[in-house]
């Protein structure tokens, strides 16, 4: 606990110093933001490379607004005046990303609906500062949406709407300028705010005055947030997808204007593309690490389609903390890193040394993943180590995460966790072995978790050994406890014990795997898979239990057995 308090004190001191500097500069930035004048015209409109769905346009025209698992029927009332069923719903509504569905519709009535809804929003009285619609990330999304959909929104618009729309662009840009200059935008949101400001600077005829300042701010954020190997500093794959979906249109619109694209933008795009492919399973979805939920395959494909060169996916991302092993159609993805910096830890999970395992398009071993908006009450559960395919000591997580009801600055952030992680990669005659370790259990139990994973050249098995090693330092008050080695199984897999005490796993394509733990009897228990496209689903997990003590070692394996039939009475999740 003392180490956590020291760490938090240093973070607080750094924040206080930064806040003082920003406070001293606040009058200058306020004056600078007020200089952002409403444009007389837009020189160009950026593309929106996210996919569209005409059925969403039909729903909106009929008065149904469905966002983040909640649906509101407006019944002839402006959706901006109805009581929001959740803050997430309000953010999505006020972000206007849904305008692209209306713009893509070939029905004139849908386009008129888009103009009418934007006019409703522009006519609102001043929105309170604590409204989710005024959060910097939402303002950034709104500015990006307005810019990309401006040809449709301004087509045939009268003078009053035109002036109000241009004024709204300037106001949003001012808000983002002040959020970046002060403490309004934090973490990954700072990059999104900078991207939106950069698009305004390129598209609006009044943007040239702020263009150099915005370019420097965007470059600084990208250099700070995108690691050398292409991972985002938050270690959340979804953040990288979202950044690419905004950076790629920015690159296109800068090129269309004949301007020079900041080198930081080009570096970030070139680095993130291979990193995403590194974390991609055979079915196209991304591994469920550190806040990643169900993969929107259309969005991921839209981003990766813009990759200029495509080689083999990287296998080692030491800065982002991920490893990849491949053999035949067998694939193993491993979280081999510690928690991200405090500011970027809001979505981080306590899943150090967890792995996911797939065969072709069939997922086998998974993590539980991040819950979607309707299940946010399970967020803390999903972030715990027990929700990951790794070893848990004493039913405690390897990282300490502040609860959501903690003070605002700490709520949901990682307060402490593994400080030392190690990765050794060996390859011999086509066989790949990873030897990994973390010290997340040293403080409470005096134990280091070491995991060894081996994937033979033919991909016919996945071999693992988990060890608990006594720490040289720490653990003065170490407690005696048990361990639980967990393997969460994808819902499409049917599992059942066999007569030998092992467990048979039957994949959806009929292939059978045998799981065995040397000298220990594995058990089957219920689990939950939060990352299914249709929402949370029940699944199963294999658990191997034992006494947590220095020298404990558990050897286990998944071995493929071709041509077998589905076992009777197998458990379907």
From TrEMBL:
Predominant place of localization: other
Cellular compartment(s): Cell envelope
Pfam families: Hepar_II_III_C
InterPro entries documented for this protein: Chondroitin_lyas, Hepar_II_III_C
Region Disordered, residue ranges: 396-415
Residue stretches making up the Heparinase II/III-like C-terminal domain: 310-557
Official protein name in the record: Heparinase
């Amino acid at each position: 606990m003392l180490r956590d308090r020291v760490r938090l004190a240093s973070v607080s001191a750094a924040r206080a110093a930064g806040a003082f500097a920003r406070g001293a500069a606040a009058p200058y930035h306020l004056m600078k933001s007020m200089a952002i004048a409403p444009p007389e015209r837009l020189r160009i409109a950026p593309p929106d490379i996210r996919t569209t769905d005409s059925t969403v346009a039909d729903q909106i025209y009929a008065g149904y607004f469905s966002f983040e698992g909640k649906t509101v029927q407006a019944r002839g009332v402006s959706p901006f005046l109805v009581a929001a069923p959740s803050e997430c719903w309000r953010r999505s509504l006020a972000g206007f990303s849904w305008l692209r569905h209306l713009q893509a519709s070939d029905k004139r009535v849908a386009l008129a609906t888009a103009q009418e809804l934007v006019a409703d929003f522009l006519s609102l009285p001043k929105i309170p500062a604590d409204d989710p619609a005024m959060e910097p990330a939402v303002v950034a999304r709104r500015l990006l949406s307005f810019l990309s959909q401006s040809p449709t929104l301004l087509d045939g618009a009268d003078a009053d709407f035109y002036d109000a729309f241009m004024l709204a662009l300037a106001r949003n840009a001012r808000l983002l300028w002040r959020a970046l200059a002060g403490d309004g935008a934090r973490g990954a949101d700072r990059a999104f705010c900078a991207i939106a400001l950069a698009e305004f600077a390129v598209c609006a005829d009044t943007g040239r005055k702020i263009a150099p300042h915005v370019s420097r701010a965007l470059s600084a954020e990208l250099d700070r947030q995108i690691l050398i190997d292409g991972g985002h500093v938050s270690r959340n794959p979804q953040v990288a997808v979202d950044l690419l979906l905004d950076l790629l249109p920015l690159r296109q619109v800068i090129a269309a204007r004949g301007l020079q694209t900041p080198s930081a933008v080009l570096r970030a795009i070139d680095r993130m593309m291979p990193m995403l492919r590194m974390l991609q399973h055979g079915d196209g979805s991304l591994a469920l690490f550190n806040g990643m939920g169900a993969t929107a395959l259309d969005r991921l494909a839209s981003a990766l389609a813009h990759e200029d060169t495509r080689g083999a996916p990287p296998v080692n991302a030491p800065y982002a903390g991920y490893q990849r092993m491949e053999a035949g159609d067998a694939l193993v993805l491993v979280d081999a890193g510690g928690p991200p910096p405090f500011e970027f830890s809001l979505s981080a999970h306590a899943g150090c040394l967890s792995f996911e395992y797939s065969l072709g398009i069939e997922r086998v071993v998974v993590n539980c993943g991040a819950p979607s908006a309707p299940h946010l009450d399970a967020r803390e559960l999903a972030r715990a180590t027990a929700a990951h395919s790794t070893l848990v000591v004493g039913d405690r997580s390897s990282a300490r995460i502040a609860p959501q009801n903690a003070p605002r600055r700490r709520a949901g952030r990682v307060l402490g966790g593994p400080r030392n992680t190690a990765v050794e990669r060996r390859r011999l005659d086509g066989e790949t072995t990873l030897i990994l370790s973390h010290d997340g259990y040293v403080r409470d139990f005096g134990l280091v978790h070491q995991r060894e994973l081996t994937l033979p050249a033919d991909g016919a098995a996945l071999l693992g050994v988990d060890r608990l090693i006594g720490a040289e330092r720490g653990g003065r008050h170490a407690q005696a406890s048990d361990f639980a080695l967990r393997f969460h199984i994808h819902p499409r897999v049917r599992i059942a014990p066999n007569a030998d005490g092992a467990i048979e796993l039957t994949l959806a394509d009929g292939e059978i795997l045998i799981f065995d733990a040397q000298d220990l009897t594995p058990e089957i228990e219920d689990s939950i898979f939060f990352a299914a496209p249709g929402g949370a689903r029940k699944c199963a997990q294999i658990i191997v239990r034992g006494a947590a003590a220095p020298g404990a070692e558990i050897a286990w394996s998944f071995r493929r057995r071709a041509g077998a039939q589905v076992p009777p009475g197998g458990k379907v999740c």
